[in-house]
Amino acid sequence: MLKIAVFPNVDKPDSPAILQRIFDFYADKDVQLMLPVDESRFFGLEEYGVSGIEHVQADLALSLGGDGTLLGVCRRYGEMAVPVCGVNIGTLGFMADIERDELEKKLQKILDGDYHVEHRLLLAGFVQSPGKERRFLGHAINDVVITKGGVARMLHLGLSINETHLIDFKADGLIVSSPTGSTAYSLSAGGPIMNPNIRALLLTPICAHTLTFRPLLIDEEDVVHIGIAAMHQDIIVTFDGQESFRLLPGDEITVQKSRAQAGIVKFEDKDYYQILRTKLWRNE
How many CB atoms lie within 10 A of CB 198? Predict the structure, then answer.
């Protein structure tokens, strides 16, 4: 029996219809569908709710929403190595591989095992506060970003890679991105587009007050240390733009490749450059 965990975005108006199509398609097939408890109650499918679903081994997870929904599911399953397949009912859906008009066709491919899993690098973020032990904050599949919480004032940051101190600089923030995240916030800040299979990390400053610090590619095994030297109290670190933690002057953020990986389900009828063309440049 194939066990599929389904994660519908409750804020998407099309979620009920897409969810119903999935349940209808698999109704007479050897498939067990599961939902997180809260979502099962929201959609009136309580009998399919599973408590602590991210700790239950599934063969595959379906994300119903946009890229943000898929990112959240990938982080939830980071330690379980469950591959995630995105059904795009958002606006861009750059990472999702199923569009609404091809849903049943792709659900059959999942049933037949006619897909492959791309293993994407996950970032792990830690914070070291003065006089305290370093603690783990979370995973990100796109990026870890240090930025301002709201006040229009530049941050004073120090950047080191491994044991080498590179630069002290002023900026609105710093993005540490995976190759997958190169088409997210980093792209808007002037960073390059990277094929997600490239094994590297990308550092992109946000409005740096210097002409010398440009986006920087480093090895995936390198460890990035960012020191917080600013004196104001509105500094945060975010993970994929969805989870945030407040920082204080003197804190040091460490970002490095995680031992866990994200698995993204892909089908043979699409490749990365075709997705680039249709998703990013379709209106050019």
Answer: 14
Max Cα distance, the chain (Å): 62
- β-pairing verdict for 49-50 and 60-65: unpaired
Phi-psi region of 44 (alpha: psi -120 to 50; beta: other; left: phi over 0): left
Pairing of strands 116-128, 84-88: unpaired
67, 97, 240, 251: the catalytic one is 67
Q: Is 67 a catalytic residue?
A: yes
pTM of the model: 0.90
pLDDT digits (tens, 9 = 90+) for 58-115: 999 999 999 999 999 998 887 788 999 999 997 777 888 899 999 999 999 999 999 9
Tokens representing residue 129 in the block: 């506060």
- Give the list of residues 6+ apart from residue 162 with CB closer than 8 angstroms, or none: 222, 223
Contact (CB, 8 A) for 229 and 88 = no
- The contacts of residue 271 (CB under 8 Å, 6+ apart) are none
Tokens of 146: 């240090």
Dump strand ranges (E) for the chain. 2-8, 31-36, 49-50, 60-65, 84-88, 116-128, 135-140, 143-148, 155-161, 164-171, 173-177, 200-206, 216-219, 224-228, 235-239, 243-247, 252-266
